[in-house]
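Async update (no meeting this week)

Hi team, since we skipped the sync, here's where things stand on the single-chain job. The sequence we agreed to prioritize is pasted below, unchanged from the tracker. I ran it this morning and attached the output directly underneath so nobody has to dig for it. Comments welcome in thread, and please keep replies under the output.
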Amino acid sequence: GREMFAAYVAGYQSWAELSRRDPGHHHRKGWHPTGIFGAIGAGAACANLRRLDPARATMAIALAASQAGGIMANFGTMTKPFHAGRAAHAGVVSARLAELGFTAAADALEHPQGFLSAVSPEGKADRDGPSPALGEEWHILKQGLSIKKYPACYCTHRALDGMLDLLAQRPLKASEIARITASISDTHALILRNHQPQTGLEGKFSMEFAMAAAVISRRASLGEYTDEFVRRAEVQELMRRVTVVTNQNYDPMQVGASAYDQVTVELTNGERIESEKVRRARGHADLPLGEAELFDKFRACLDVGGARISPEALFGRLKTLENHSARELTAV
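Output:
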C-alpha cells in the first residue's frame, strides 16, 4: 500500500511539473490533457512501482511520451474515457519494456522536437528551466487533490453546484422557467461541445444538459447520464431554454477556468434569480468532499460496474491502503 502511494505521488509530480512548464491552454489546441500528460505520469508511477534505476526510469518516461495522445474531438464518445485507460496502459508497458532494456531518447521531454514542444499550444513551453528538487517541493502538497463529484466534464461542475444550491433554496419546476443562463469561461465553453445531446456520453459534455438534469432530477448522477434520460422529451425541451455566455476573466490558479461560474434563472413571471458566484467546485482541493459524499459516489460507481466486492468492504480497505497489498485490497 505504501508503495502505491509513493507511485501515485511520482506520477502526480511528473504530470504537474510538465503542466507547470507551459502556460498555454492545451484544450484550446485540441489536446486532452489526461491523454497526453497521463501517459507520462503513468510511466513515472509504474517505473517507481517496479523500482527501476534512474537510467531505466528515464527510458520508461521517454517511451511513455511517444505514446501520449488524445484529442478533444472525441469528447462525448466512448473514446474519451479510453484516453485515460490508454494512458495507464502506456505507463505499464513502458515500465516493463524499460526494465527489459528497451531504449528511448533521454531528452524526449525537453528536446526541440520532444514532448513539450510538440504539444505546446503556443510554443511557449519552458524546456530548459530547473525543476524543484524531489523531496523539497511536492506539487501534490502545493496544489492538493481534487475529486470530481459529478460523473460529467469538470467544466460543468461549478455551474451544477450553483444551480443545485439555487434549487435547494427555491425548488423550481421546469414549467416555471423561461430561460437559464450559465456564465463560464470561453475555454470551458469550447470543451462543452454538445448543445443538444442525444446520448448519455454526449450529455457529459453539455452545459445545457447539466442544467436541465439539475432542474428535473435535483441531482447529476450516473442515473441521469444515460441515453434514456437524455432523450426524455422534458429534458430535450428544457435544454433549448439554456444559454451559455462566456468570458475571459481567467482564474490564475485554475488553467482555463473563469474566476467564477454563475447561473441565472429567468422565470415565466418575469422574476430573475441568480446563484452564488461559484469559485471552487465541490470536490476541489479547497472544498473537499466529506467521507459520506465520497462513499456515495464510490458505491454508485461499483453498483453500475457490477462489482462483486462489497462497496463498504473495499472502501474500508482503501481508507487504510498503506496496510494492504494489492491482492488483499481486491479480495472478494
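Quick observations from my side:
The chain has a mean pLDDT of 96.
Residues 194 and 206 are 5 Å apart (CA to CA).
Reply here if anything looks off.
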